[in-house]
Amino acid sequence: MGNIFSKFPRNFWVANTMELFERWAWYGLFNVLAIYLTSSIDTGGLGFTQEQKGPLMGTVVAILYFLPVITGSIADRLGYKKVLLLSFGILSTGYLIMGHLTNYSLVFGAFFFIAIGGALFKPVISATIAKTTNEKNSSIGFGIFYMMVNIGAMIGPFIASKMREISWDYVFYLSSAIIAVNFILVLFFYKEPERPDVSESLAQSVAKALKNIIVALKDVRLFVFLILIIGFWSMYFQLFYTLPVFIDQWTDTTLLFNWLHDLSPRLASVFGNGQGAVNPEMILNMDAIYIVVFQIFVSGLVMKLRPLQAMVVGIFIASIGIGLTFAFNNPFYLFLSILIFAFGEMASSPKITEYIGRIAPSDKVGLYMGCSFLPMSGGNFIAGILSGQVYGSWSDKLTLLQRDMAVKGIDIPAISTTFTQNDFYRYAEKAYNLNHNEMTIYLWNSYSPGNIWYLFTGIGVVTALLLLLFDRFVMTAKVSR
To answer: pTM for the complete prediction?
Structure first.
């Protein structure tokens, strides 16, 4: 094994290290973003509604996953090193700027600016890994790369959770600083890989890339598969868009903190937030931890299954897991439900790219692989709608309380900069003569906000069933011909 690792060139390890830092910065913000956007302004949050949060996150991240179709051509034209420097400049600046904005449109613009930086980074780093591996070591090479992604996704939210207890500003400062480290790596350690000679202009390269995508999508198998897999991603991204807010609003994590404290006060201090509770992102981070620990084991289990079979099984399991995270408001159930979700994710997510590579004609593998980001783009957009308008109407605690007070004819001032969300809750608790936990239980029992699990699980189950039909009819028809 050591001999295999020694065969990877320096550029491979530099690229993996840059990926780790980029994911650290991204997930450090992304895992807490939904809470930051919607938290009461007197706690440092922005106080946006769920209907504002959903489109902001969904639209911007959808664009981030679509743009690599174009930015890959830009990298081939300008050079990987230049594009990496441009990417890190945008990302580091964007994180810094976003933390100082409170206006919705400006925050939207800053997050979009960050997305451009991320879209420039993604195709370059993937191409570098591909160019520094060969047929003999590519499997383990991309396995290492996937591991780096999840290590970054594990470290980022953990540290960001501690930083936001000091100040939300520190979350943005940290992401900006972590990206700045990558400047050193690319300037002094990264070597420009060989690139094909490009004779056409940048505009022609971009136009060609878009044209090639259209050509690829004329393959019925690919087109139908990409459409179906949007369902998986729209369910998957609820883990980041909706679950943090749901835990923050409906789950009493002081129970979890007290249990940890009984086990070990030191352990409670590590995972606690200093206020006798556990922040949602700490619980959410179990997904990345499970992947780091179990991915090789799960990959071994599904190795004998065809990619499409593994996807169907994985998506079905993930659907159950995501549903269970919303069905109950007991924090102890979250560890099991996120574990179930993670097993489904590990079985299905890696197989999506593998499947696309298998159905691609031998001379169009790269072209087909370039389409793998498209369903992630569509899934994020739909996830934003589900997490915005749908969650806001069905399960948002503030909306349900406003609705209940209106039915009871209780007058209350509108939420503003001088009358915050927390002021609203305190006013309502006084009017109902209930404390905070009693108010939460009352609303949970009266409106059943956890029933949104039917929707999220339903999307996943339907996706799995449609993939079964796709395998039975579309793929069989192709083979018979």
So the answer is: 0.92
